[in-house]
Design a protein that fits this description.
There is one protein chain. Helix content is 6%, strand content 46%. It has three helices and 32 strands. A four-stranded antiparallel sheet has the order 3-32-31-30, with no helix packed on it. Strands 4-5-6-7 form a four-stranded antiparallel sheet, with no helix packed on it. Strands 8-9-10-11 form a four-stranded antiparallel sheet, with no helix packed on it. It has 448 residues and is mainly beta.
Length: 448
Amino acid sequence: MLKLIVTACASVLVLTNDVYGITPFQFTKRTYDVHTGQFWTGEPKVKVGDFDGNGTKDVLCVYRGDTAFYVLSNEGTGVLGPVVAHVWPGTQIEAALPADVDGNGFTDVVVISGKDLKIKIQVFANDGTGSLLRTSLSEVIGGDWWLDRPVAGGDLDHDGDIDLVMANRQSRSILIIKNDGDGHFAVYGSVPATPGNYREVALADLNSDNIPEVIIICADYPPSINVYKGLGNGEFGPAQSDTVYQHTPRLVSIGDFNSDGISDLAFSNWGLPKFVTILHNAGLLQFTLPINVSSPPDGSNAWGLAAIDLNEDGWDDLAATSTGAPWTMFLINQHDGTFNMAQGLQYVASDGGDIMAADLNADGLTDLVVGNSAQIGVMIKQSCTGDFDESGYSDISDLSLLISYLYLNGPPPDMWSANIDGAGTVDIADLSALIGYLYLNGSPPFCK
């Protein structure tokens, strides 16, 4: 065990590293009620898009089975305005995606509904003022009788238009739905898929060819992750990866977790003891053996997952929510693609749900949006001093570096991070403040 012995006059203070490291960031939190009681499952999805054209991200929330989706406008500071419901009467909405589907430069919303073989795709077009008006309606054949079909949007054929990928749970197929450029959609084809209960579909370029691959999470036993290579013309090759797990994967997040320039995959898990699983991409759609992060002490199961650089060290970390628990857990990247859970649960909203990362107040720091069965939670990030060894935590190692710099001619730390009290200079007052924070329940470090 590492110990520091600090003497001051007749006092001796022994500091040990058995104090869990404290993360050098914090969030200011706000919640917004959106519960209507109309939705079918209560499972939310949150997205962001600049609907009103003010240069900052607004928030979109949809509950599968509801008859409406909800938009909260961002005033520019991360403070959201009143909830505005956009109703599609007589439907059960499965998904709502923000995208400029008609090429006019404004962010529209594509809404998908249908509980039979006919899928309805309704565009709520943005007129440039933030008003979303129902315009083109497309009906395509190829669905099944199962509500809650995962949907993702992206340019599948390199024509500049946002197309759709939909996973049919019952018919075990992946539909490719193309956009004609004016917001009208038609089925282009399908991809044979591994039979299973499809939990999520996602699009990401996993082999650095600027063509998105399709990622399918199958929650049936045995659970699997399937990746289909994009061919660039709206078609996809057979599954390149079919990795089977002992625990059920739920939702996916994309990030470069080992900082090699290639996108990796992270999955939240339903089932103990593995909270999150990371797959490092070795290139050519080949993945390393799974790296697991164990569940927290309360035994919670992970739900939502978002890649975010929490401590501004240039490495993708993870933020995760959990079902039935009112917290967001932080997983700090150890600069090798492995993760440690951080101390300090940031409470927001009434229980865990979907989560995504975005800069909501245009300050260059990535914030978080959480959606659950009753509320939207916005978490605006602040960078804090205290982690000047860039370990991801403020702990005894930082104390040691600061003592070395101040008294032993050691190398200088990052001066902004070492200015614990925010006074503008690095001196004994900062050392005293950090000791007080870590060991004596003192005030937290300066944040901005």
